[in-house]
């Protein structure tokens, strides 16, 4: 705009404001001085104002430990909110390749999507349960979800609560296109769970039952983390969900594919484990009494642990001392204060990255900050915290949007040393340069859906599993694929119902 | 997707149309952030927060009446979000809430390009919130008086008088002095 045009416009504004022509002329000359104050440019693609000091070190965060809700517990939580069965209506015109079964873009009651795991952009497995017939069915795909083949079907017992509309959870974990394990949970009458392990070495065509594990039932304990790092070596952490942070639990290791399990010593208050190789791993503890969260590492398969990260646990004035909770489904209205992220995927990433979260409750507002720490070369220090974006994803997550009936925390996928994907119901944000720059994809999920897990294979291909837990008819699940880095998403057809 | 008007776009957004939401954000986000940036006195982090709060409301609160002018409605949401934010901050600073937002104003974030710009910012920041809104909406966002009236839910006459007061305030401050 030329100076004359700017002046004319400013004079017109002054005239509108009731100044006389003479005054307006004078004011117009000076009002354009306001133009000196320019707003920063905003990149509409990323919807973010470029940071003036991009790349500078993030401020030292207030740090607390982090913990992940296991998928099995998540599923149990999901099942618990099922209120009423509704008639299943298959989406018209969609058929899977599974004989006798129809495909549907939305899995709804009496079917539930219980687990999903992909090892690359093509090969993956999902578990679909039927709460009426009390069965789990496992399906595999080798073409990115275009078609599904039935891999396994087995009965699931009713829950001891007597509820007819829930199923005990399960987990599937594939190491590659051939080797995978399936963990089924069964409720124990006095409380607690037992777990059965099945194993495949041919991509799910056949399954062999390994038996119950660990060998001794653990009443009152729930599986928190289940991790096979090689075909033969796996770890399992059991915790007392009601006594988290009090050192009650059990850590087990197998060296023979789950045939036998050995109980390991572990630091008190263990809350989460992650192994990245046969012998190398970390355990996270949260000692509320001492006011610290700590990470320990092992290099001998869990026989010895060394303290490698300590973080202060600070009381929140409006909430009192933080209590590590596993159940994050309560939402902010109940006053729960979530200390750890439920990331649905990585916690300690296999690349040596540690995301930490802070969650502070201000009345009805939750304020999340996530920081990513890199593991130093020695493996003894987590260094250089990088703040995960506090723009679209976090800001949107820190308050329950008006009209929303549920709350969900962001999920994280560490796809590479510098490739992190951070997702919430509204935005997928990701970086490919270790957090220096972030990109955003908006409107990537339907309304009321929240991501359960997101996973990318390279820069372009990825999937998200999302659920809607506020639907009147019970929980709904979808899976979406992207082949262009999240620009567009395809809701894929899943096998469910006859 | 071809969407003729802001109103059509907004109507689709409030009905959950994903592609419309993306277009909406792309179309409005920069202007809304610029608006919030000036309301906050150049605090880019808080400006971002405000607009994102507003976008959540726009997307999730389906209170937009189809056919009504879109721009004033959108700016009303952003203005209210800013107002809420300032009230919260005021409470925080008075000690009711112990933790501040992460986006505390940082001088280096204010995108001040010079001393004069800094004086302008200070002068605008010195206006009361209701006057600042009117001035920024009219001068920087180029909304008409009628649109501002609709956005702030006040009569057009009140808009005029607030604009008059705001300009007078600025005249009394240094940034509007004509330099030779």
Quick description:
In chain A, helix 1 (3-16) crosses helix 2 (21-31). Chain A has helices at 3-16, 21-31, 71-80, 392-397; strands spanning 102-104, 107-108, 111-118, 124-130, 135-141, 149-155, 170-174, 180-187, 193-200, 208-218, 222-228, 234-239, 249-254, 262-264, 270-275, 281-287, 292-298, 306-312, 353-362, 365-375, 382-387, 411-414, 420-423, 427-431, 439-442, 450-457, 461-468, 476-482, 490-491, 494-496. With 498 residues, chain A is mostly beta strands.
Keywords:
heterodimer, A: 498 residues, mainly beta, five-stranded antiparallel beta sheet, four-stranded antiparallel beta sheet, 4 helices, 8% helix, B: 180 residues, mainly alpha, 0% strand
Describe the protein.
The complex is a heterodimer of chains A (498) and B (180). By secondary structure, chain A is mostly beta strands. Helices cover 8% and strands 38% of the residues of chain A. In chain A, the strands form 8 sheets. In chain A, strands 2, 26, 27, 28 and 29 form a 5-stranded antiparallel beta sheet that branches. The N and C termini of chain A lie far apart (65 Å). Mean pLDDT of chain A is 68; it is low at 44-97, 314-368 and 390-407. With 180 residues, chain B is mostly helical. Chain B has 8 helices and no strands. In chain B, helix 1 (6-14) crosses helix 2 (18-39), helix 2 (18-39) runs antiparallel to helix 3 (44-60) and helix 4 crosses helix 7. The radius of gyration of chain B is 17 Å and the shape is globular. Mean pLDDT of chain B is 76; it is low at 92-113. Chains A and B meet through helix 1, helix 2 and helix 4 of A and helix 2, helix 3, helix 5, helix 6 and helix 8 of B.
